[in-house]
Each structure stands twice: as C-alpha cells, then as structure tokens.
Amino acid sequence: MKKTDIDWPKITKIVQDYNSDPECLLMIMQDISDIYNYVPPEVIPVLVEKLGVSESLIYSVATFYKTISLEPRGKYIINVCTGTACHVRGAEKITNALAEELGIEEGQTTADGMFTLDAVRCVGACASGPVAMVNHDTHGALNRSSALEMLDQYRK
Ligand code: FES
C-alpha cells in the first residue's frame, strides 16, 4: 500500500481546534482517522509534541478504541455486526462471503487499499439483521448475494 500523503496544515488545524488539549486526544485521533481511515505513524510524534501526551498513551487509545487504527485501512471499512441478533440471522455467512470475494480475512485490508473487513458489536439495527456498516452507511437484511452487491456499490 502506498505511503500516505499527510496534509500537515489540516492536522495542525485539528489540533488547534481542540486547543492542543491533551484531554481531547481521542477526538483528535478520531478526526485524523476520519480523513485517512487510520492515524498515520508520522503524526504520532507531532501529537506527542503538541499535546504533551506520551507515545504509549496514543498506542493505548488506538488499542482500546476499535474505530482508531495505527495501521493503514481501506477507503471503505466494512464492519459486519456480530451481535446476537445478527449472529443468529447468519452474520458469519456474510463475513465469509465478503472475505472470499475480497480475498482477505477479517481484520485485513485488500492490497488495492479499497476495503478493510472487520467485525463490530451490535450497531442498534437488530431488526434489520444481518447488518453491515460500510464507513457510515448501514446495510441491512443482508444475504450472500446482497452482500456482494453492496461491495459493487462501492467499487464503482
Ligand atoms: S445485533 Fe446486529 S444490529 Fe444489533
């Protein structure tokens, strides 16, 4: 996967918008993730310097919060719900169909950087299970073929 081009003025603005407040580390990392789908490693020393936080705190936040990653992730992050309602309605089949189609396993990203396949706990749309989120979009009542059609929507 190619190296990320960092928009440094944008990173500086995000930090400034939170007044370089170390208490806002999570929100800052989330905003950076919203741009790149991960927190690029080059940004970490800047956060350490500007916020006065430790590098280990940044790693802890990234480990604890599933929405934040320090590894490059796809342009589209597919989170298949593995909550109970979706599980009993066949979430595993959806994950398997997507994994097979994309040639990756759960937690991995396609070589072209388009898709990351992941799992998530209940997203609160149980009646529409099985459900998958693609970035901020919710797709419900999935079966094998509609899950593959869902991919096609994002491939266009
Ligand atoms: S269990 Fe999947 S949305 Fe609730």
UniProtKB/TrEMBL annotation:
Keywords: 2Fe-2S, Iron, Iron-sulfur, Metal-binding. Its cofactor is [2Fe-2S] cluster. [2Fe-2S] cluster binds at residues 81, 86, 122, 126. One of its GO terms (molecular function) is 2 iron, 2 sulfur cluster binding. InterPro entries: NADP_DH_HndA-like, NuoE-like, NuoE_dom, NuoE_N, Thioredoxin-like_sf. Binds 1 [2Fe-2S] cluster. Belongs to the complex I 24 kDa subunit family. This is 2Fe-2S family protein similar to NADH:ubiquinone oxidoreductase (NuoE).
